[in-house]
Amino acid sequence: MGLITGLCTFLYHFPQIYKWLLKPYYITSLFMTVAFLVVRKAPGLCEHLASQREDGNSCDFDWRELEILMFLSAIVMMKNRRAITLEQHIGNLFLFSKVANTILFFRLDIRLGILYLALCVAFVMTCKPPLYMGPEYIKYFSDKTIDEELQRDSRVTWIVEFYANWSSDCQSFAPVFADLSLKYNCAGLRFGKVDIGRYGEVSERYRVSTSPLAKQLPSLLLFQGGREIMRRPMVDNKGRAVSWTFNEENIIREFNLNELFQKAKKLNKGRALKGEEHNGTQPGEGSDELHADAKTPEQPTESKKDQ
């Protein structure tokens, strides 16, 4: 049953996986993930490798290598229990496969281990995971604009993501946050992002740590009238984030997005009626224009390409 479920999931996500394979980051990661398997099984090469098998077959895994691979599988399954998106699942597989391959190559031949480790270092330094570039209604803040925007209109509620481009968790969460902005963004409920890896002053001002040990990235903060109302994940006395799963259901429930959205729509209607009374327009004329404006996102302070 589990095999059938996995196969169905793979077929469902196959178009997305196919697009990934066209990107250099995923192509290189895939080759590095299967590197040891290729070396161990390649005819003409595997015959010259060392092996601890009793039958002396150097083209097959020995018991220690199987043990390491089974341990890798267990680690990936444990990590993927908290994974939300398919990108996180694939990212965990790539990461721990590289770690296992490094151990296996060093155990096989120290020269192969050094070569593979050098390739991993070069890969990390030169090949970055692609950023999410899909549709979204999100305003990007800088250190000079965030305070002004949050305090501009006390009737507007802001949900702001504090992130860093180097954080894999932030990169995995990007499509989830973008999807929420498409569903709930309106004139009275806005979505924003600020790169605290780039703007350290913002990190200190809003008490969101960028340390990997604190595990506070990404952080979602709810602002009303320029004041922070709540944040997720919460932070304990030691400055470490309390474990919290960043999926769409949790965010909608914890931040009461449905209720906030209904209140924001009432605010939109109130503004529309005031605009009609002020301009002397017929009822219904201004409301359509207002809703059209509400659905049109403002130009971001800085583009994704700049970041």
UniProtKB/TrEMBL annotation:
- Where are stretches of biased composition, namely Basic and acidic residues? 288-307
Q: Where's the Thioredoxin domain?
A: 116-269
Q: Which InterPro entries match?
A: Thioredoxin-like_sf, Thioredoxin_domain, TMX2, TMX2_thioredoxin_dom
For this protein, the record's Gene3D superfamilies field holds:
Glutaredoxin (3.40.30.10)
Taxonomy, top ranks, is: Eukaryota, Metazoa, Chordata, Craniata, Vertebrata
Q: Does the keyword Transmembrane apply?
A: yes
Can the keyword tRNA-binding be found in this entry's annotation? no
Record GO biological process:
brain development
Q: What is this protein called?
A: Thioredoxin-related transmembrane protein 2a
For this protein, the parts annotated as crossing the membrane are 20-39, 114-134
Q: Which PANTHER family match?
A: THIOREDOXIN-RELATED, THIOREDOXIN-RELATED TRANSMEMBRANE PROTEIN 2
